[in-house]
Amino acid sequence: MKRKFKEIPKQIQRKRPAEERVNDFYPVYIEFSDEEAKNQAQRCITCPIDIMRGLNSEFEFCRTGCPLNNYIPQWIKAVKKGDIKKAFKLSNEMSPFPEILGRVCPHDNLCQGSCTIAKTEHGSVAIGAIEVYLNERAFEMGLKPYYGEDKKRKKRVAVIGSGPAGMSCATFLLREGINVEIFEKSDRPGGLLTYGIPNFKIDKNVIFRRFEWMKKAGLKLHLNKSIETKEDMKKILDEFDAVFIGVGAPSGRSARMKNEDAKGVYHVMDVLTRSQKIIFEDFDECDLEGKRVVVLGGGDSAMDAVRTAVRRGAKEVTCVYRRDEENMPGSKKEVINAKEEGVKFKFYTAPKEVKVNENNEVIGLVCQKTELGEPDESGRRRVKVVEGSDFEIDCDIIILALGFDNVKFEWYESAGIETDKWGCPLVKNYQTSNPKIFAGGDAIRGADLAVTAARDGREAAKKIKEFLGV
Ligand SMILES: Cc1cc2nc3c(=O)[nH]c(=O)nc-3n(C[C@H](O)[C@H](O)[C@H](O)COP(=O)(O)OP(=O)(O)OC[C@H]3O[C@@H](n4cnc5c(N)ncnc54)[C@H](O)[C@@H]3O)c2cc1C
Ligand code: SF4
């Protein structure tokens, strides 16, 4: 077999130039053309996964790196042959929304990181970009995802939360011919895909398009409908045959600094949600135009915040992070994008105190230098503050992007759902201690990824089907 990956250089999606893209919220990446996709697909060596499957093997390849265990080599083979219809069918089999995950997954840590040729100097196959290409091409050709339209629907399942976990669970239940109703507290569906991840990473119409198809297939979507009280949950339990909880991990962490309640200190979700709402409608409460913005944190949400601030016309944007660039937990390509867009980074720096004026408005941030010490239980080196190293950064706005915690709803207890010390429902095979209630996504594991939430939703749907005996 000819190894084309040595001849054809790896290509990632082209980007719009930084000086152009910082002026708007349109997507940064340009989808592959037919030629680019076919060419990149030729680089796949089609590892012998069908032979390996079932063997007790440690062998790692793209499918083992994908939390959904997608049929990657199979759909890439179909793309090579120009058979978009087949590729589309295969790609939608394990994944509830491949064109969404192809855009937002940190591929280099997942499928592409496990790709056999990633271990060579030539680099992995561009799996995520090919996944987006083949699905968008299929939609242009008029192909639609399957949602069990041909089935006579039985039983009723309530899904609480419409993020990737709830959306995925609803998808696989609909495909099985089960009636689904989603209860979503927000005014738009999609969870963090809609109001967390910025439009320059994923166009929101890509998400809403899926909900339109699901509604056409019979999904009932109740927006602005929060399940808050014991009575709300009791009504749901009385009415439905089973329930799936996909409420995410919505509580933003504090930096526990002096003056954190000052005017001009925001949580990352306030800024991102409001910035997204500006695109939908005229809505603004935290104007960043002309301001000096400091973002605390080094993960993906911090990168989303710095890049949003640039697009909102901030005069200067600085990311403050306790460790070094090497140890940043998010996607490396987003750090590169942020640098290209003019963001400054201050590494080995921890926030200490918000400096305020007489009106309790932010005028600066007092920081301390840090260094890395001994590794902790997880192997990550601990952060140590260097005493007497205080210094100040002048700024007008501070955005906290320090991670998320779970919320323990009062109805967990009344519905007989046991929780762990973080307030996450305890589950066995996605089933809670109330056998009628299932859960998945960030709600059970804490802040993670869209693809793991999608996997949970899919697996929970299988268990719900078994429970319902349909
Ligand atoms: C800023 C940011 C950027 C991110 N970037 C990426 C990325 O690039 N790639 C990636 O893979 N992951 C990313 N993530 C993580 C990813 O978005 C989450 O892991 C994923 O969305 C979790 O899915 P979920 O369905 O469990 O929860 P969520 O997406 O949080 O959805 C939960 C839904 O439940 C609703 N809800 C909550 N409580 C109730 C209630 N009581 N009643 C009714 N509805 C309720 C919420 O309104 C929400 O719509 C990012 C996260 C953030 C915050
Ligand atoms: S879902 Fe994510 S990890 Fe799986 S193939 Fe697609 S991009 Fe890769």
Describe the structure.
With 470 residues, the chain is α/β, with parallel strands linked by helices. It folds into three domains: 4-140, Fumarate Reductase Iron-sulfur Protein, Chain B, domain 2, CATH 1.10.1060; 154-250 and 406-468, FAD/NAD(P)-binding domain (3-Layer(bba) Sandwich); 253-403, FAD/NAD(P)-binding domain (3-Layer(bba) Sandwich), CATH 3.50.50. It has helices at 18-21, 34-41, 49-52, 62-65, 72-80, 84-94, 98-104, 111-114, 127-140, 164-175, 192-195, 204-216, 230-239, 268-280, 300-311, 332-340, 410-414, 442-445, 450-468, and strands at residues 14-15, 29-30, 154-160, 178-183, 220-222, 242-245, 251-252, 265-267, 292-296, 316-320, 344-346, 349-356, 362-375, 381-385, 391-394, 397-400, 404-405, 437-439. Helix 15 (300-311) links the parallel strand 9 (292-296) and strand 10. It is globular, with a radius of gyration of 23 Å. The relative contact order is 0.13. The mean pLDDT is 93. The structure holds flavin-adenine dinucleotide (FAD) and iron/sulfur cluster (SF4). Residues 104-105, 160-166, 183-186, 191-193, 196-197, 201, 226-228, 246-248, 250, 272, 300-301, 304, 441-443, 447-451, 453 line the site of flavin-adenine dinucleotide.
